[in-house]
Amino acid sequence: MAFTVAIDGPAAAGKGTVSRAVAAHFGFAHLDTGLLYRAVGQRMLEGTDPVEAALTLRAEDLDREGLRADPVAQAASKVAAIPEVRAALLDFQRAFARRAGGAVLDGRDIGTVICPEAEAKLFVTASAETRARRRFDELTGKGEAADFDRVLSDVRTRDARDMGRPDAPLKPARDAVEIDTSEMSISQAVAAAIAVIEDRIKERNDHENG
Length: 210
What we know:
Elements: E1 4-8, H1 15-26, E2 29-32, H2 33-45, H3 50-55, H4 70-79, H5 83-97, E3 103-107, H6 110-114, E4 120-125, H7 128-141, H8 148-164, E5 177-180, H9 186-209
Parallel strand pairs: 1-3, 1-4, 2-3, 4-5
Helix pairs in contact: 1-9, 2-4, 7-8
């Protein structure tokens, strides 16, 4: 039986970690839709037209090295603002969402555009400063040189681009439950998400058995 969980939110809010944990808990398939845009962004950096890259995206493109690098993340945000790129990736995401056995999709427009009929919708967020600190710690933890003020500026710039784009801007779905992870541990954020989804599953079961 299909059951779709849509999890949206800005960069470094924890939505990927929460999504993977939720999918594992319920035995649902998981799709990090940001990887689709990162793969397109990576190919754009290599010289491919972004729309062409989206139309010809292959499964192996999602497994390439370097997709988590910051230049690719910035490129992903830029190609995600191109309506033709979003349109090219729409059908793939919707088909994944309705697969048998349940699915969790995380991104920036899952609950608003990709799966507006999702049974459960979450918006995972955190303050810009908190998200910048997490990204800074991640970079320095890997031995990379990083400047906190520059990281914070990049986070705010990406937020402005994601929230301000005319096509599918980043925003909570009207019926999404917001989870602010600024002061939460990972386990607390995951528990909050699981509780919301369990409520939605119960509501659907009650409705179907009603």
